[in-house]
Amino acid sequence: MSFDSISAGATGCFPRRAHTINATDDAHTHTVAVYMHSFNPDCENDTVHLEVHKRCTTEELIEKVLAGRAELEGQSVQDFDLFEMMGTPDGQTYKERRLDPGEYPVAVQAIWSRLPVVVDSATPKNRFVFRHRGYRAATGGTRFGSAEVASSIDAFLTKFLVQPQDREYADLCMLPELTEQTLLDNLRERFANGHIYTYIGPILVAVNPFCFFPIYNPKYARLYFQSKRLGSLPPHIFAIADVCYHNMLRIKENQCVVISGESGSGKTESTNHLMSHLISLSQKGSTGCSTEQTLLSAGPVLEAFGNAVTLTNNNSSRFGKFIKINYRENGMVSGANVEIYLLEKSRIIFQTKGERNYHVFYYLLEGADEEERKKYFLLKPNDYKYLNQNEPFVLEGVNERNEFDRLRHAMSSVGFCAKTQQTIFGIISAVLLLGNITYIKVSRHGYHSDESGYIENEEVVDLVANLLHIRTETLMQALTMKRHVMKTETVVLRYSVSEATNTRDAMAKCIYNSLFHYIVLRINQALLKKDFSAGKGYYIGILDIFGFEDVGAQCNSFEQLCINYANEKLQSYFNQHIFQFEQEEYLKEGISWTNIEYTDNTECVQLFQVREEFQIHFH
Ligand SMILES: Nc1ncnc2c1ncn2[C@@H]1O[C@H](COP(=O)(O)OP(=O)(O)OP(=O)(O)O)[C@@H](O)[C@H]1O
Ligand SMILES: [Mg+2]
Question: Model pTM?
Answer without folding.
Answer: 0.83
